[in-house]
Amino acid sequence: MKLIILGAPGSGKGTSATVLREEYNLAHISTGDIFRANIKGNTPLGIEAKSYIDKGLLVPDSLTISMVEDRLSQDDCKAGYILDGFPRTIAQAEALDEMLAKQNTKIDAVLSIVVDDEEIKNRVAGRRVCEKCGASYNVVFKPTKVEGVCDLCGGVVYQREDDKPETVEARLKTYYKNTQPLIDFYNKKGIIVEGDNNKNPEVCIEQIKEGLKAKGLV
Ligand code: AP5
């Protein structure tokens, strides 16, 4: 099964994808995580990506598309995957269609995660991430057992640079301008499955699972 998870910054894409990848044995491909790993490693891609990410802007399509094409060619994607944070523009979506057409395949469903903007701002303000294993926490909704220490690997948990309130505003603006039009793009293909993540993540994940069942995908 090939899935896309789509939603505003901080809507819960990563939270939902982490559960769904286990449930359906999918590779989880987060473009944000790939960029952050490159930033940490100080690679040329990371240095360029950081200049956009820190301003709440999108990394240019040319860089992002080739990075994803390379990632999708790896062996762990053969059994299916969940794309988290890609595509984010119509040009990326069209490039993805072309990539998959070459392999005689297509996306099965697009999981659209819905959350109110005010709730997003609260959640992002409280988000903390492990610098070692990438596990995601929230000081209000999902705190670590010991403050500042990852429950899973003992790594240091930190606040992402782009989670500062002014950058979150910019990320939301970028989302509405560039990414929200994708809902219409995929609605026309009839492959959207909606998850309401305004309450707890379990409710959202259950809705998604039901939606996938209704489409005969699971
Ligand atoms: P990326 O890392 O993809 O960031 P994002 O889309 O802004 O999404 P987030 O990771 O912030 O949030 P999420 O939706 O995964 O929410 P989460 O589950 O963590 O991208 C970062 C940047 O990279 C972009 O801004 C861009 O510059 C660049 N980039 C990436 N992809 C690109 C592309 N394709 N093209 C160009 N540029 C690209 O949840 C958020 C918080 O809420 C967590 O603390 C979580 O614990 C909590 N939470 C989740 N659900 C609930 C709930 N139901 N109740 C309470 N708390 C909850």
What's the SSE blueprint?
Elements: E1 2-6, H1 13-24, E2 27-30, H2 31-40, H3 44-53, H4 61-72, E3 81-84, H5 90-102, E4 109-114, H6 117-126, E5 127-130, E6 136-138, E7 157-158, H7 165-179, H8 181-187, E8 192-196, H9 201-214
Parallel strand pairs: 1-3, 1-4, 2-3, 4-8
Antiparallel strand pairs: 5-6, 5-7
The chain binds BIS(adenosine)-5'-pentaphosphate.
BIS(adenosine)-5'-pentaphosphate is lined by residues 7, 9-15, 31-32, 35, 52-53, 57-59, 64, 85-86, 88, 92, 123-124, 126-127, 136, 138, 141-142, 162, 171, 197, 200-201.
Q: What is the compact description of this entry?
A:
This protein is α/β, with parallel strands linked by helices and 218 residues long. It contains 9 helices and 8 strands. BIS(adenosine)-5'-pentaphosphate (AP5) is lined by residues 7, 9-15, 31-32, 35, 52-53, 57-59, 64, 85-86, 88, 92, 123-124, 126-127, 136, 138, 141-142, 162, 171, 197, 200-201.
Low-confidence stretches: none
What proportion of the residues form beta strands (DSSP E)?
A: 15-25%
Q: What ligands does this structure carry?
A: BIS(adenosine)-5'-pentaphosphate
* Strand tally: 8
Can you describe this structure?
It is a single chain. The strands form two sheets. The protein has a five-stranded parallel beta sheet, sandwiched between helices. Strands 6-5-7 form a three-stranded antiparallel beta sheet. It has 218 residues and is α/β, with parallel strands linked by helices. Helix 2 crosses helix 3, helix 4 packs parallel to helix 5 and helix 6 crosses helix 7. It binds BIS(adenosine)-5'-pentaphosphate (AP5). BIS(adenosine)-5'-pentaphosphate binds next to helix 1, helix 2, helix 3, helix 6 and strand 6.
